[in-house]
Amino acid sequence: RETKGGIGDMLSLSVALAALKQKTRCTITVECKGDQDGPRMQTLRRCEGVDRAVAESKEPPVHDVMVDLSEGASRGELAELRSTGRIKSCRAELYCKALQIDPPASLAARLRLTGADVGLARSAMRNAGLRKGFVALVMRSAEAYKDWSSESWAQLAGLLSERRVLFTRIGPDSDIDEQALGIGGFAALLARAGCVVSTDTLAMHLAGALGVPGVALFGPSDGRRIKYPSVASIQAGTPCSPCWRYAQTRCALIPAELDRSKCMEDLRPEQVCEAVVFQMEQARKARQAHAGASL
Asked: What is the pTM of this model?
């Protein structure tokens, strides 16, 4: 049972469940808060390691063993903070610890995408005039305090244009609205990207799960915890970053009426652009090496 956390947490949880399933050969049902067809449920149904996802109810599903994971990862984070002064483990590792199993070698979730998901992605690409290998600028995050400013996104877009890099903006009032695609369609779209740029949000976790090159921007949260091989993290250089503030608290360095974080404003578009170009070049070299090895 998992009744807390966002979609990124669901993906992290699925990593631990896949490891548990491989070890015990059990059948896994996840009981989760949310609508039966809500985004969390859509995500869980596409995760390897999850046989069934059901909405939380008064009567739990039939089971032999039931594990409540609602606070498991949070307790692990609190223990690490108390002992070391910072959280070192990623959520997938903390869920493994809560389940008393060893973390797998790969900490990226594995997704099952359907033909309908792929069809939605291809349609969105046609409408936006995209071809495979584009850069996805995912400008929306679930929490405003993790957002990068619209001015910074615009500057990054300008820098990519100067380098003749094909990109698309994803988010409200942009080239593509990911919410219209649903979780599966959005994941299938990102699977066709050459690089995904986002803040600490769902797109980063999907890029890691799909093995797509990514650049993730961090301020209040800690990019050192991200352990996806394909995703590079950029941590703000502000002395107080990461502060682990949440939506209910405000940044003391920003006027009270602005729901922003000073550290996110300190991230430079030039630095992000260089990281994007580097990630795409590394991916190109890896493809060439793979092609040469298969000859």
From this structure: 0.86
